[in-house]
């Protein structure tokens, strides 16, 4: 059975300078075109790990707690459209660039990516777009260099792969990415380094951010910051202040109702793909 995957940054990428020193790719928004191809045996994400929501759902034995799995059709088959779920960072990044504009993100302090997992969005922003990113992720197995070399580099053109050296990759990551190993909660502004990043960033993001979804929205609105999140798990039993919010759709409606200017659309990927976003005064 062929698997539909989304391949990006393969044909549409070119260096900013045509010299041997041009190690870093740079994608303009227009160049950041995605191509759907059908491949068999696409690689899985061996380090992504289970969705925390799923784990918690199992732990608390709550059959209604929703996981990040793709929905099922009436025949019981998983619905799949657009990109495989493990290309979500690429799909999300394209949405961010199209919606918020790369020059704005770059010039106005970059991105705070909450619950960024292994750091794929952060690495893509840094390496492909020379854009700063603060990754807020409690996991202790975040290896940005591994992420860059294993998850991103293989999708870049041969010319760029040949130019890549681990030292150059490390240099770009050190320049653009900061990892804050902590949970993002409603008291985010109490953490000095995080508070500084939040005040100075252009955008706060969260792709499948588990329990961080509502704190991201609340903190961003409080600061008047643009945000984009793709909520996944609802945690119906562990958020008593929203006890009436039981389903994923309830959750989206609940979050969107926090401000009249929060918009909603779908990303071209399977699984939880509804993005809520707020432009603020960009
Ligand atoms: C489903 S994964 C998504 C990871 C990544 N955004 C992606 O799309 O591959 C959820 C991640 O959220 C992190 N996480 C869960 N709760 C969090 C919180 N309150 N603050 C920050 N990160 C959190 C977990 O450690 C996990 O890496």
Structural class of the helix and strand makeup? alpha/beta
Tally the structural domains.
1
Please state the second-level CATH architecture: 3-Layer(aba) Sandwich
**Average of the residue pLDDT scores:** 78
User: The biggest beta sheet, please?
Assistant: 7 strands, mixed
Radius of gyration: 18 Å
CATH class: Alpha Beta
Percent strand equals 15-25%
Provide a count of the helices: 10
Strand order of the largest sheet: 7-6-5-8-9-11-10
DSSP strand count: 11
CATH topology: Rossmann fold
Bound compounds: S-adenosylmethionine
Instruction: Give the topology string: H per helix, E per strand.
Output: EEEEHHHEHEHHHEHEHEHEE
Keywords:
282 residues; alpha/beta; Rossmann fold; seven-stranded mixed beta sheet; two-stranded antiparallel ribbon; 10 helices; 16% strand; globular; binds S-adenosylmethionine; Methyltransferase domain-containing protein
């Amino acid at each position: 059975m062929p698997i539909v995957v989304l391949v990006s940054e393969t044909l549409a990428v070119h260096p900013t300078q045509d010299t041997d020193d041009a190690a870093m790719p740079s994608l303009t928004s227009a160049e950041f075109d995605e191509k759907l191809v059908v491949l068999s045996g696409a690689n899985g994400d061996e380090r992504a790990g289970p969705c925390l929501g799923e784990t918690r759902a199992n732990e608390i034995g709550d059959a209604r707690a929703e996981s990040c799995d793709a929905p099922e059709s009436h025949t019981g088959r998983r619905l799949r459209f657009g990109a495989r779920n493990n290309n979500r960072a690429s799909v999300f990044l394209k949405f961010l660039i199209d919606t918020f504009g790369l020059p704005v993100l770059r010039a106005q302090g970059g991105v705070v990516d909450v619950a960024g997992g292994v750091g794929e969005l952060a690495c893509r922003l840094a390496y492909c777009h020379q854009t700063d990113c603060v990754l807020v992720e409690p996991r202790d197995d975040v290896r940005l260099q591994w992420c860059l070399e294993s998850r991103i580099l293989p999708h870049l053109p041969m010319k760029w792969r040949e130019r890549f050296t681990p030292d150059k990759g490390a240099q770009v990551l050190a320049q653009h990415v900061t990892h804050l190993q902590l949970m993002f909660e409603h008291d985010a502004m109490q953490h000095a380094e995080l508070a500084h990043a939040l005040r100075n960033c252009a955008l706060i993001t969260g792709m499948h951010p588990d329990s961080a979804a509502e704190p991201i929205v609340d903190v961003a609105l409080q600061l008047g910051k643009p945000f984009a999140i793709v909520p996944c798990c609802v945690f119906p039993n562990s958020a008593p202040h929203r006890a009436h919010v039981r389903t994923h759709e309830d959750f989206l409606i609940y979050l969107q109702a926090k401000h009249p200017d929060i918009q909603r659309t779908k990303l071209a990927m399977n699984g939880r793909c509804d993005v809520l976003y707020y432009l603020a005064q960009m």
